[in-house]
Protein 1
Amino acid sequence: MDVSVVVPVFNEDESLPELTAWIERVMKENHFSYEIIFIDDGSTDQSWNQIEYLRSSNENIRGIKFQRNYGKSAALNEGFRAAHGEVVITMDADMQDSPDEIPELRRMIIEDKYDIVSGWKKVRHDPISKTIPSKFFNWFTSRVSKIKLHDFNCGLKAYRLKVVKSIEVYGEMHRYIPLLAKWAGFKKIGEKVVTHNPRKYGVSKFGTGRLITGGLDLASILFVGKYSKRPMHLFGTWGALFFLIGFVISIYLIITRLLEPGVGLSNRPPFYIALTAMIIGSQLFLSGFLAELISRNAPGRNNYLIEKKLGIE
């Protein structure tokens, strides 16, 4: 199969027939074998009925219905698990992403050998309350992750099938799929300027609160990606540093006490600094040991992504 189109859906019953017809037209014009996977993320309107109706007239359409709303990350994760196409395209269901971009996105994956191609909505048709926070979010994420993208959160992206089968998207991590892929070893990440259409149906499902949760998710990904297999390297290093600082100050205080018997210990600020530093250091060490125990006993502790094997069954 040439292309799998994964579309998360949440209360988008008005746009689904038009979006489906648009995708079908693009696929037929380019002679692609394809599937469209709609993931109904607990919609309260007629979205699932629309998906069932569309399926009745086109066997290339597949659907997954959540019992309640779990969020875009969960929807994408299930869509990735169900996808079979050589190239997986994700897009939003609100008609702001253009299916006409699919052929070029697919070409960049197949011919230019990219692992991921992310859309860049260079010209956006969104209110300033969304565009300004989004610019800051993308700038900050690019600097921290070392991935040169202008629009991490663009819903229109293309993936090599192996990429989506090698990552797990959870929480609100859909914003950081390029970073998840980078940690999984897929480092050829490209970008394409894409058309961003004005919203035709419904209302935006995202608010400014995503800036706070987005920052926390980024910190979580960076930590898990770098230290999930060796948490003691982080906690142990900082624990040793704090404990050493406290120990050195304590030795200094003891020496001054011996040299000047009249000088007290507990009435001096360095005493409490040393005590606090040693307690923090001990706690960090303990956290590192506990994290190591959890990591060593985790079911996936020895799961590694293997690209090729020679002479091994």
Protein 2
Amino acid sequence: MSEKKKGPIIKGYEKLKKEVVIDKVNEIFRTQPDNYIAALEEIGFEYHEEDDYEEIEERNARPENQNQKDLVAFFKGEKKLSDRILHQYFEERDSEFPNLPLMRPFFKEANQNLKSLIMYGLDSYPERIDLLSDLAFFHEFENNIRLLITYYTRACVAQSNLETFTELAWDFYYSTNPDGYEALYALKKLFDPDTEKRKIIDFLIAETKEGKETDSTVKI
């Protein structure tokens, strides 16, 4: 039956059915993270092992320009940390088509030279959100919660643009919340109640509370 021929009752039923399935899947991932394959199969899904295309892409990645060659050499310990290496990293990161498959494995292996490069960059440019995001991504493969707290806090204090400050605060919250750190409440203590930054933090805290209350009312 075509979409045009389906009446509102049928469309409504199909929409409800899809929502129920999505809710069941979300519940399985939330409550059975170690047994999700079997649980999904129980409700009618079939599991198929597929090639890890990201891994294949990374395995086949090669440096495509001099910047990338120098960065790979640095990550492998063949070059020293320097301003030149840092700006080559910026150029590659900010390029229209960055060679992500070439760079990702160094994050995944928690390459210490990459870590030192990110920290070196943040010491020179503490408010760069892209470097903070890279540190947060690195944190997924090597726990660096104290570094995240230090650098995000420093950036939030130094940032004068309120729109950028809001983005930083959100990133800080989402990057550290899985580790149990209450970034917004920590920031709240740093700013006086009558400041614009404090008002923003209070607003963000209210937003997170509202989101948690909404999640708690959802029933499967």
